[in-house]
Model the fold of this input.
Amino acid sequence: MDNNGYDVVLVDQVSIVVPLFKWLLNVTGKTKHGRTSVVFYCHFPDMLLATRTTCLRRAYRAPFDMLEEATTGAADAVLVNSMFTSNVFGKTFRKLHRAGLRPGVLYPAVDVDAHSITEKEVQDVSILPRELRCTEDVLMLSINRFERKKGLDLAILALAEYMRRKREDGSVVEGGGGPPTVRLCLAGGYDKAVLENVEHLQELTTLAETLGVREFVSFVPNFSSDQRRILLARCRAVIYTPENEHFGIVPLEAMAASRPVIACASGGPTETVVHLRTGYLCPPTPGAFADALETLVEECDLAVDMGKMARERVVQKFSRDAFGEKLEKALRESTKM
Done:
């Protein structure tokens, strides 16, 4: 902005304010050269996040859905957070798609320097739960909210499948037996006031007990930022289990920390994780995840090499500098429309 007004306004999250901004800017005269562009950054169509389990709910949502599409189309330019979201955008806002609106892709970013791992953090395990302090264990880490849609059970099922294979081929993995001892840590957002969080944590605990792997699974709900950093420093790899995730910031955080990622071959991770280079993109089955887990457990050097390539990829494509350059380019282009 200069003394003549605004060149561009960036709207995030909710499209309803797009026409309001355009009206206000023109009424108040806060424009430059008679025109200010309004750019909308769409993380995911809101209408797809609303529940429609009954006729009443569908009827209630109908006017909001129409309003969302109309106000989104009022923007001078639309950005989305991934190619996956771009495809969903076209299928959801069909009128806008038929009219030729094709959103640009602006990937979210992570602070690469903030996720740099130091040797001190690799060794500093005092703030972790006791069972996670053994530096001899191979730690596989899952970071996500304790919600059913996040597919956390897949990580436990994959661990159980890995251990079943080890029992069958004669490897000792139980009762403090021979190395490597693999431990899975499920850490993430948890709120006792949210019934699903409470129920799902209990479901996951029961699943681990039923599969006979409870002693190898640790739960760290509501971990601190310091615990997060040390867990990333301690782990061999990060297991990311959601299917069709809009984007997924956790894989980027893991890669910025030089850790390979095992993720479902769908949604945003297909655009961030490079299969066989910075991690593994797998079908959402215990067997496929167990294959990747086994490889990274048994081939430490491969995990290190993948982690290095993962960090390089984040620096090049998903750093704040890269985000800033692409955002500025998109905003400048919007003012020329």
User: Anything to note?
Assistant: The CA atoms of residues 187 and 292 lie 20 Å apart. The chain is about 45% helix and 15% strand. The domain at 8-109+320-334 is CATH 3.40.50.2000 (Rossmann fold).
